[in-house]
């Protein structure tokens, strides 16, 4: 195996033989110059879905279950001009680190993955991945947390409290706190996010007020029909999320481009819709999105 960069097929062997290499590489990794993004806006690829048991992309319920395939697609995305970094859980971040794919990249650690998809405790989004100390120790640029607010689920309160604590702990270290809020409800036993303008506005205002300071808080918000009303609800930097894979990719891209016209939108975080495009062309999808920036 190459001493500087290894292939996907060698990851398990290296992890078994030399687990300390991860910490060594993390300490030596070249950090990005900042969070502005190479195009003036930050472009991140999201890959934290598997840790929550959310493996579907498009019509394939297990699309993200093949780790080698996912890493190949992430490597393609991260190699394209204009892609500034990745959002992921420790296992994926460390795979990419071992592959040599994170030099100079913005890396955001996903923190609360305890609200497993399709479970009775889904709203109880406990912090089961990174915490603020680990984000700092790994040399990452920030931490991301999911905040689903279900008015009918008491577990929302503990998730709110945990997210507020994480916002403050990241701020203490001068690190970005990326908060992804939704108002959510159970429909036929499954958690569904309310993407009405009123619900997105409400979730954004709650998320913006978390923690003892908002100095390092960025919001990750879905694109809805009236984004101007949503963006008027906060002065915090906003990253828009890509969401599910759409069969009508042209329409999806058009909605993103419209949202990006607002200068308050400081970039995008796109996962499945860019890694698993309907035509299978990851590089083409990435280049299209970067072109909007």
List keywords for this structure.
single chain, 293 residues, alpha/beta, TIM Barrel, 11 helices
Gist of the model:
By secondary structure, this protein is α/β, with parallel strands linked by helices.
Unreliable stretches: none
3D shape: globular
- With helices defined by DSSP (H or I, 4 residues minimum), what is the helix count? 11
Structural class: alpha/beta
The count of DSSP E runs of length 2 or more, i.e. the number of strands, is: 9
Annotated CATH architecture = Alpha-Beta Barrel
The amount of helix comes to 25-40%
Question: Strands of the largest sheet, in order across it?
Answer: 1-2-3-4-5-7-8-9
**The named CATH superfamily:** Aldolase class I
Give the C-alpha Rg.
Answer: 18 Å
Please tell me about this protein's structure.
The chain has helices at residues 11-17, 21-28, 67-79, 90-98, 132-137, 155-172, 197-208, 227-231, 249-260, 272-275, 282-292, and strands at 42-47, 85-88, 106-110, 142-149, 176-187, 190-194, 217-221, 238-241, 265-270. Strands 1-2-3-4-5-7-8-9 form an eight-stranded parallel beta barrel, surrounded by five helices. It starts with 10 loop residues before the first helix and ends with a helix. It is of the alpha/beta class and 293 residues long.
